[in-house]
């Protein structure tokens, strides 16, 4: 399902802002409650608002103090282990995207070589047209295809493993 684009704008009407704040605060507390219940974790929320003199504390001030106390007693390295800022988050995402692009480039090259191989088999292309810089990829694709063909032929009882005449050649080098 595609994500819908949300445009946020500052609400100039104070009463509309307060109504929206209260609805969102209620939703946030509900989500925090669900997270704690479904995942069996401890959590809390402290929400400050210009509309109220005291902050909203969930689930209760005592439980919130307990959760914060446990958090504050952790060594600093444990407290910040999973924290990230925008710069490190962006770097992590960029690295992931680079890896994905590299993986897709390899996958696309394999598909191009496989397509060329099938076109040669069909007489559409000539082996002389092959770009030898892709020889290692072609060797890998051919080995993979040969293994798959031999496996399928064994499944269909067409192949006798002891008879080289009935199996697809394994020596592609």
Explain the overall architecture:
It comes from Penstemon smallii. Its main location: nucleus. It is found in: Nucleus. It is a single chain. The protein is mainly alpha-helical and 173 residues long. The protein contains five helices and two strands. The protein has a two-stranded antiparallel ribbon with strand order 1-2. Strand 1 and strand 2 (56-58) form a beta hairpin. The longest helix is centred in the middle third of the chain and has 36 residues, at 86-121. It is elongated and about 85 Å long. 2% of the residues are buried. The model has no long low-confidence stretch (mean pLDDT 87).
Describe the secondary-structure layout:
Elements: H1 14-39, E1 45-47, E2 56-58, H2 61-73, H3 76-79, H4 86-121, H5 135-155
Antiparallel strand pairs: 1-2
GO molecular function: DNA binding
Protein name: MADS-box domain-containing protein
Organism: Penstemon smallii
For this entry, give a set of tags.
elongated, mainly alpha, 2 strands, two-stranded antiparallel ribbon, 173 residues
What is the residue-mean pLDDT, rounded to a whole number? 87
Estimated radius of gyration: 31 Å
- The rounded distance between the terminal residues' Cα atoms is 47 Å
Summarize the main sheet.
Answer: 2 strands, antiparallel
Total beta-strand segments: 2
Helix % is 55-70%
Strand content: under 5%
> What string gives the helices and strands in order?
HEEHHHH
Contiguous helical run count: 5
Could you say which structural class the secondary elements and strand pairing correspond to? mainly alpha
Order of the strands making up the biggest sheet: 1-2
Unreliable parts: none
Main location: nucleus
GO molecular function: DNA binding
Subcellular location: Nucleus
Pfam family, one: SRF-TF
